[in-house]
Please model this.
Amino acid sequence: MSEPALLSVRNLELWYAPAVQALRGVNIDLPERQVTALIGPSGCGKSTFLKTLDRMCDLVPGVRVSGSVRYRGKEIYDPCVDVTWLRKQIGMVFQKPTPFPMSIYDNVAYGPRTHGVRDRPRLDAVVERSLRGAAIWDEVKDRLKKSALALSGGQQQRLCIARALAVEPDVLLMDEATSALDPISTSKIEELIAALKQRYTIVIVTHNMQQATRISDKCAFFLAGELIEFGDTTQLFSLPRDKRTEDYITGRFG
Amino acid sequence: MMRRTPRPLERLMGLFFSACGLTAVAFVLLISLYLILAGVPALRETGLPDFLLGRQWSPTAQRPEFGIAPFLLTSVYGAAGAVLLGAPIGLLCAVFLAKTAPPRLAAAVRPAVELLSGIPSVVYGLVGMLVLVPAVRRCFRLPDGAGLFSAILVLAVMILPSIVSVSEAALRAVPPEYEAASLALGATQIETVFRVTLPAASGGVAASVVLGVGRAIGEAMAVLMVAGNAANMPSLFKSVKFLTTAIASEMSYSSGLHRQALFSIALVLFFFIMLVNVLLNRLLKRKGG
Ligand SMILES: Nc1ncnc2c1ncn2[C@@H]1O[C@H](COP(=O)(O)OP(=O)(O)O)[C@@H](O)[C@H]1O
Ligand SMILES: [Mg+2]
Model:
C-alpha cells in the first residue's frame, strides 16, 4: 500500500428500516491527508456513508449498521467507543450552513468550550486560529460579537468550517458543502479545502464533477448503496474501469 | 361560465357570523368600559397613590382605609413564587418530553400534563385545602398552614401545563440542524439541549413563563381556598389575600365605597393582566419574526 489508510471500511452495510438498505458491502480505505470525493446520483448513499464515518447515522431511529469501520485501527462501532471523542476527531460540515443563533465568537468557541476549554485567552486564540484557518478572519474580525446569522451564506459556511476546525479534528467530512452557495463562495471554499488538506484528511460529497476533479486526490463512485469504483481522481475520470462509472461521468446516466 | 344566483340564505348567514364576531368585541369593550366606570369613583375618593401604595385595608372600620398594597404585593409575590417553582420544573418536563424521553413514555406523560390543565380550579383548591394546608402546617409547625406558601405551591402546579406545552412546542420548533451540528462537534445530547436548543427556543420559553404569570395572577378560586384570606402584607407563612381573592371574598357583603373599591381592584387587576398579555404578544412576535 502506498499511503496508510486512516479510515478503513469493511463490508459496511446499513439499513434505515428492515426493507430499506442504503449501503451494501462497502469496502474502502481512505488515505491520510488527502481529499477523497464521493460522487454518484442522488439517493445512492453518499450522505449515508459519510454519516457512518462519525456515527451521525446513530441519530436516525431504527437504523442498523453491520460491518466494520476502523479509525486509526480502532473499531468505531465498538460499544465502548466514546462517540463524543470520535466526533471530536472526525468533524462534519453540512450541506446547509448551520451556524448556531449566537455570536460569531460563540459559534467558533462552542466546540472548545464543550471539550472543557474555559480559559479566555486560550479561547480567543483558538477562535482566531480557526477563523483564519477557514479564511474568514479578515471578514469578521471586527464583529466577532455580532450574530452569526447576519453573515452571507458563503460566510456562514466558512464559519461552520471554522467551528469544525476549532475542536482540532483529524478528519473533516463535508456533505455537499458548496451546493447551496454562489460560485465565488464556492471557489473560496475549494481553495480552502486545498489548503486544509496539508493538515487534515478530508472527505467530501459532491454533485459537481468538475469540483471533484479540481479538488480531490481520490474519488469514489457510489451507485444504489454500492461502491462501484474507487481510485485516483485523474485515473477514475480519464480511464474508468467500470462501465457504470464511465456512463455516470460522461453524463449518460439517468 | 358559472352562474351566480344571489342566495338570500347565504347573505343572511354571513350577516349572522359577523354579528357573532362583533359580539365578542362588544363584550370586551363593554367589560372594559364598565370596569373603568365602576372602578374610577373609589380611586377618585382615595387617590391613586394612596389606593395603590396604602398598606392598610380596613373597609369596614370606623375610619375606613383602602390601601391595596397588601393585595398587590401578594399577587406579585404569589405569581413570582409560582413561576420560580413551576417554570424550572415545567421547562425540564418540556425538555424531557421533547428531547430525552423515549417516545412511548412521552406519549404517556403528555396526556397526564394536559389533564392537569383540565382539572377545575376548585378541585385544586379542595385538594390544597384538605391535603396541602395540613401538610404545610405540620411540616413547618405553624398554627395554620393556609397562607402565601400554600397558595404558591398550588399556583405552581396550576401553571405547569401551560409552561410545559408552550415550551415543548418551542423546543420542537428548533431546527434539527442545530442539534445535529452540535452533536457533530462532539457535544453530548444534554449539552446540546442546554447550550443550543434551549437558547434557540428562548423566545417561546419566555412566552410560556409570561403565560404562567398571567394564569397565576388571574387565578382566584383555588387561591381563595388555601391562602387564609387576611389582608396582611405578604410574608411566606402568613395568611394573605390576593387581588382576585379580595374581590371574590368581600363582594358579597360590601356596600358603598367598599364595593366601589373592589371594582377599583378589578380595574387594577385588569390592567395588570393586560400588561402581561402585551408582554406575551411581544415575545411571541419576536420569536416568530
Ligand atoms: N433518515 C432516513 N430514513 C430512511 N431512509 C433514508 C434516510 N436517509 C436516507 N434514506 C434513504 O437512503 C438512501 C440513500 O440516501 P442518501 O445517503 O441521503 O443519498 P445521497 O446522499 O447519495 O443522495 C436513499 O434511498 C434515501 O431515501
Ligand atoms: Mg446527500
